[in-house]
Design a protein that fits this description.
Keywords: Glycosidase, Hydrolase, Signal. Strands 1, 2, 3, 4, 16, 17, 18, 19, 20 and 21 form a 10-stranded mixed beta sheet that branches. The chain has an 8-stranded parallel beta barrel with strand order 5-6-7-8-9-10-11-12, surrounded by 5 helices. β14 (about 385-390) and β15 form a beta hairpin. It folds into 2 domains: about 30-75 and about 415-470, Immunoglobulin-like; about 80-410, TIM Barrel, CATH 3.20.20. α11 packs parallel to α12. The chain is of the alpha/beta class and about 475 residues long. The protein has helices spanning about 10, 85-95, 95-110, 155-160, 160-170, 205-220, 245-265, 280-285, 290-295, 310-315, 335-355, 395-405; strands at about 30-35, 45, 50-55, 65-75, 80-85, 120-125, 175-180, 225-230, 270-275, 300, 320-325, 355-365, 365, 385-390, 390-395, 415, 425-430, 435-440, 445-455, 455-460, 465-470. It has 12 helices and 21 strands.
């Protein structure tokens, strides 16, 4: 995986960061909540004690102004969250019941100090952040099971399903996406969990594998809202993994998976690609095929390559189809002062300004040594949480997602906002009518700016690299 582009450390560290000292407003009609994260960790998604107030003018004639215009609307939001890997579930399940209950309420609750995580991505079978490789139909070498008579969700019943059911008890409306890292090895050209391609003769069986997964999870009380066909289909070097070219994915969808879902009356969304933004041609080529397109809800992206703006190329080519941002890692050797500004600027702001309905960070939880993982899996994937028994450390991705998830609830709609130089931002209208604005100061020094909405203005100051969420 690629390292993030980083801001110069010298620009982020050693500066005196403001926490939003504002000049008084006159004619205040409504107060504004201000939640702040500073790169030096002096504030970590911290609500500022004094609310901001609307006035009638910007602080000075030269103050940059972010204009929020809710007359211009864009895509609805499905949610912000993480990937609940098997390893994450294993670590959560190992906690004491009381400690786990408190933590899950903090993550998935929608009131008080909870951060309101509203979307999770699951692996269909093992990801590389499971303790071991498995599928739901593993057989001795040389055997096949085209009728899937031995299909079983038993591997998920040990840790994943118990934890998932606790999460859904807290937030029943949480949306879930399933993504496979590999089919069962007996379906593959190399008969291995790593690499290889899906044998054409097993396309029908693999379509039924998805059907059985969705039906089996439903029987457990778990609704899968969407699936992607293959995690990172152009990266067959992971364990598990699969190489699936765009023409293969199109063929699988139009001849097998789409008809299988239709026959089984499954309304789970089918999402293509699920890989880097350097290949927007991959999903576009599938969507250009009308036989495949009829079954496809949209396309999913990661950002280990390519620009985030590539998502808009797919939107422009097929504006009737949705876009999702489904994975970005935080490396264990990277640092908070670089990660938080980059992820917020590029993903929370950048992905949603380029039509994404979700923004998901990679791994929800890892232990202090970035375990568990498969042999050959990621050894440096830092979780949003580091779990050491009942000890919880909140890491970079926890705060990155919190800045959006707590207030831009599912059903929020992105609304227009201008982008003054070095002040990337994104605005939403939440289902309850609140306006939510996420701003990142990309300057090398503190920056005061104004926000204008419906003729009223408030002013705020963010330190270099800092992130603010404003709610009114």
């Amino acid at each position: 995986m690629l390292r993030f582009p980083s801001l110069a450390t010298a620009l982020l560290l050693g500066l005196s960061l403001t926490t939003g000292c504002q000049r008084p407003s006159t004619g205040t009609a409504k107060s504004v909540e201000f939640w702040l994260t500073n790169p030096d960790k002096s504030a970590l998604f911290q609500r500022q004690a004094a609310p901001l107030g609307f006035g009638s003018e910007a602080a000075t004639p030269t103050t940059p102004v972010i204009e929020v215009d809710e007359q211009q609307t864009f895509q609805p939001i499905d949610g912000f969250g993480y990937c609940l890997t098997g390893g994450s579930a294993q670590l959560l399940h190992a906690m004491s019941p009381a400690a786990r209950k408190t933590l899950l309420q903090e993550l998935f609750g929608t009131a008080g100090t909870s951060i309101g995580v509203s979307y999770l991505r699951l692996s269909i079978g093992a990801s590389d952040l499971d303790a071991q490789v498995f599928s739901y139909d593993d057989l001795p070498a040389g055997q096949t099971d085209p009728t899937l008579s031995k299909f079983s969700l038993a591997p998920d019943r040990e840790h994943l399903l118990p934890v998932l059911k606790e999460i859904l008890a807290i937030n029943p409306s949480l949306k879930l996406m399933g993504s496979p890292w590999s089919p069962p090895p007996w379906m593959k050209t190399n008969e291995s969990s790593k690499g290889g391609s899906l044998k054409p003769e097993f396309y029908p069986a693999y379509a039924q594998y998805f059907v059985k997964y969705i039906q089996g999870m439903k029987a457990e009380g778990v609704r899968i809202d969407a699936i992607t066909i293959q995690n990172e289909p152009l990266h067959p070097g992971n364990n598990p993994s699969l190489l699936m070219l765009e023409e293969q994915q199109a063929e699988f969808i139009k001849k097998h998976l789409g008809p299988a879902f239709k026959a089984a009356k499954i309304d789970t969304k089918i999402i293509v690609y699920d890989h880097n933004a350097d290949r927007p041609d991959y999903p576009i080529s599938i969507l250009n095929d009308p036989e495949a397109k009829q079954y496809v809800d949209g396309s999913a992206f990661h950002l280990y390559g390519g620009p985030i703006e590539a998502l808009s190329k797919v939107h422009d080519a097929h504006p009737d189809k949705n876009l999702y941002f489904t994975e970005q890692w935080v490396g264990s050797k990277s640092n908070f002062a670089e990660n938080v500004p980059w992820h917020v600027r590029t993903l929370i702001i950048g992905a949603t300004r380029n039509w994404a309905r979700t923004v998901l960070e990679w791994n929800l939880a890892a232990d202090p040594q970035q375990n568990p993982h498969t042999p050959g899996g990621c050894t440096e994937c830092r979780g949003a949480l580091t779990l050491d028994g009942d000890k919880v450390t909140r890491e970079d991705a926890y705060y990155i997602i919190a800045h959006a998830s707590k207030f831009a609830r599912p059903g929020s709609v992105r609304i227009a906002s201008t982008t003054p130089e070095k002040l990337p931002n994104v605005a939403f209208r939440a289902p309850g009518g609140q306006r939510v604005l996420v701003v990142q100061n990309d300057n090398a020094s503190p920056q005061t700016f104004a926000v204008r909405h419906q003729g009223r203005v408030f002013s705020s100051t963010l330190g270099a690299g800092a992130v603010g969420t404003y709610v009114w």
